[in-house]
Write a structure and sequence with these properties.
This protein is of the alpha/beta class. It has 11 helices and 9 strands. The strands form 3 sheets. Strands 3-4-5-6-9 form a 5-stranded mixed beta sheet, with helices on both faces. Strands 1-2 form a two-stranded antiparallel sheet. Strand 3 (about 90-95) and strand 4 form a beta hairpin. Helix 1 packs antiparallel against helix 8, helix 8 packs across helix 11 (about 280-305) and helix 10 (about 255-270) runs antiparallel to helix 11. The radius of gyration is 21 Å and the shape is globular.
Length: about 325
């Protein structure tokens, strides 16, 4: 961590002044902030949901162009989403269900037409027992039938929810919702969508705050996933030096190199799960190291089988 921090600090001195408002308010993994009332504590996944919900709720004249575009993108993976017709949607972050069902991170709905459950797991929080099943049952109790309910699972890197989250009172919703469920990862779907679709759509509109918010959010996510170009190059160079990874080592002992990387990934995961009171700047550097190690491993595996790291998740 110290080696990476020193190198990044030196590298940052040569760049334009680095500032991202979302980082400055400590929107980091496992970071918690007291609400103004002091009565509850909200993990920062809720902040991500509120930001995304605010972006999606943008209306250009009478057209909800951004949420429509998101649905079009999801429909490329899950064709049933083409049946959703957006006219006048309601966007409700932390939507209250009944006393036993909890809160839906983001609910997008039009009565008697459709209801989209957005479950945000950008920080890889553990799935609660019956969580998605409880949300589905609540919406069914509100008058929606199964074919009108859709589930958008916002994972960090593409991990699917656990089987237990689909089961409730002897009923398993997983198979029934397979055609209306989509795993949309922040790393491989949300971030490219924001960069390649949302920014071009809003760049010529007279919406400076929206454009600024989207640019800041893109920069924040690129920082989270170690994708800022200069920062990434510096990070990977330091990590390779620390682990003595080079082309000769890879050719000589591929499995040994991968084993060293996996050991460090495991060590970093332990640090990531440490106490909440740790310095948030340290947490960010730890997260960068984690993402950097994954990137190095991906590149090595890709070269070994004749492919290279791109925009799709590795297996």
């Amino acid at each position: 961590i110290k080696s990476v921090s020193r190198a990044l600090d030196e590298q940052m001195k040569m760049k334009p002044y680095p500032i991202n408002l979302l980082e400055e308010v400590h929107m980091h993994d496992n970071d918690e902030r007291k609400e103004l009332s002091g009565a509850k504590r909200k993990v920062c996944e809720n902040a991500h949901t509120r930001i995304l919900g605010k972006i999606l709720a943008f209306k250009d004249g009478n057209e909800f162009i951004l949420v429509r575009n998101l649905i079009e993108e999801v429909a490329k993976c899950c064709a049933s989403w083409n049946s959703i017709s957006i006219k006048n949607p309601e966007f409700t972050p932390e939507a209250n269900c009944d006393n036993t069902s909890g809160r839906i991170d983001l609910l997008i709905k039009e009565d008697n037409k459709y209801a989209i459950i957005v479950e945000n797991k950008i920080n890889e929080a553990t799935d609660q027992d019956n969580q998605i099943a409880r949300y589905i049952k609540h919406l069914k109790d509100c008058g929606f039938n199964n074919n009108q309910i859709f589930v958008l699972y916002l994972s960090s890197r593409g991990d699917d929810p656990s089987d237990k989250t689909w089961k409730l009172e002897g009923e398993d919703y997983q198979n029934d919702f397979a055609a209306r469920y989509c795993n949309f990862s922040y790393r491989f779907h949300v971030l490219p969508w924001l960069k390649n679709k949302v920014l071009p759509m809003i760049k010529d509109l007279n919406q400076p705050y929206l454009k600024s918010a989207v640019e800041q959010y893109i920069d924040y996510l690129e920082g989270k996933y170690a994708l800022r170009k200069d920062e990434r190059e510096c990070l990977l160079e330091v990590l390779k030096n620390e682990l003595k990874i080079n082309d000769d080592e890879i050719k000589k002992d591929l499995n040994g190199v991968l084993h060293r990387i996996d050991e460090k990934i495991s060590e970093v995961e332990i640090i990531q799960k440490g106490k909440d009171g740790d310095d948030t700047a340290v947490k960010r550097r730890v997260n960068l190291i984690y993402e950097g190690l994954l990137s190095i491993k991906t590149a090595i595996l890709g070269k070994a089988v004749g492919h290279f790291e791109g925009t799709e998740p590795y297996t």
